[in-house]
Amino acid sequence: MFIYHKIPQYYETDQMGIIHHANYIRWFEEARVAYLEELGFVVMKEVNSPIISPVLSADAKYHKMLRLHDKVEITASLVQYNGFRYTFSYTVKNAETDETCCTGNTVHCFLTPDNKPLRMKRDYPELHEKLRNVLEEDALSETIL
User: Which one of the listed residues 14, 59, 98, 123 is annotated catalytic?
Assistant: First the structure.
């Protein structure tokens, strides 16, 4: 489990000062990328990266509104990984009230730059093991919560 902190910016709001719904998916991405970077997937940020990870699906359920300047806490957890495809779940909370404002999931896969499937166990064994370990750790922390 990884916790990402954010303070919404003016451009992320609508005319009522409420965070626009599309931004939650962007925040999911920010949290996921920060988590993967912490795990050693910095190679994915390189311009000519040997690993790309497109979004296969994304969903969000909105519970409460967030407004400009609210302090936001995004929890990202790896909930599925099979060596090629992986799923993250997210919980977006108002950090000051601890209210859950949005929950969701994204599904991704690993590809080469020419869109061929990567088998992480074979092609990147160290990163594969990190993801397997994180999957176990995140599952354990979810059961504790």
Answer: 14
Which pLDDT tens digits describe the chain residue by residue (145 residues)?
Answer: 999 999 999 999 998 889 999 999 999 999 999 999 988 887 666 677 888 899 999 999 999 999 999 999 999 999 999 999 999 999 999 999 999 999 999 999 999 999 999 999 999 999 999 999 999 988 877 665 5
| Pairing assessment for the beta strands 100-109 and 72-81 based on DSSP bridges | unpaired
Active site residue 98: no
